[in-house]
Amino acid sequence: MPKPEQPRLHSLISRQWTLAVAATFLLLLLTDWLAEFALKSIAENILSETLETPVQVDAVSLGLIEGNLTFHNTRISNIQGFSKPNIFTARTTRATGAIAELILLGKVDLDRIEIDHIETWIQKDDQGYNYEILLRNLQEP
């Protein structure tokens, strides 16, 4: 009698392991998606606050193993009073460096920033050039 039960038990254990692996994989995917969604929101808020103009990012990809953070379809709105809607757009902006420290400690230690498919609109009014105003906003108080 024990022989017919053993394959059935083995099959049950195999199914449990398969379900456990599948559940773990789905949990990791969900965690990754939630982390990237949170990073998108945090990045938009920090950049908008720092530059003092709205910043929009369509998506954020996090590569902890590669040590990079990628922003997809970034748009920096023009400073109020200038005619063009954006001062800067980029299809991809990738920062490489100590990304874990950036995320966990808020410490910025980047080795490289790559920007692909950039478009920028430089305009001048009585206050000066729009990019100069953005640069002044970047300076620490």
What secondary-structure arrangement, pairings included, does this model have?
Elements: H1 2-51, E1 55-63, E2 68-77, E3 86-97, H2 99-105, E4 110-120, E5 124-125, E6 128-129, H3 130-138
Antiparallel strand pairs: 1-2, 2-3, 3-4, 5-6
Description:
The chain is α+β, with helices and mostly antiparallel strands and 141 residues long. The protein has helices at 2-51, 99-105, 130-138, and strands spanning 55-63, 68-77, 86-97, 110-120, 124-125, 128-129. Strand 5 and strand 6 form a beta hairpin. The protein is elongated. The N and C termini lie far apart (81 Å).
The overall pLDDT, averaged over residues, is: 82
Characterize the overall form. elongated
Distance between the termini: 81 Å
Number of strands: 6
Biggest beta sheet attributes: 4 strands, antiparallel
Q: Supply Rg.
A: 23 Å
Helix content: 40-55%
The main sheet orders its strands as: 1-2-3-4
Number of helices: 3
Tell me the structural class.
alpha+beta
Strand content: 25-35%
Run of helices and strands: HEEEHEEEH
Unreliable sequence segments: none
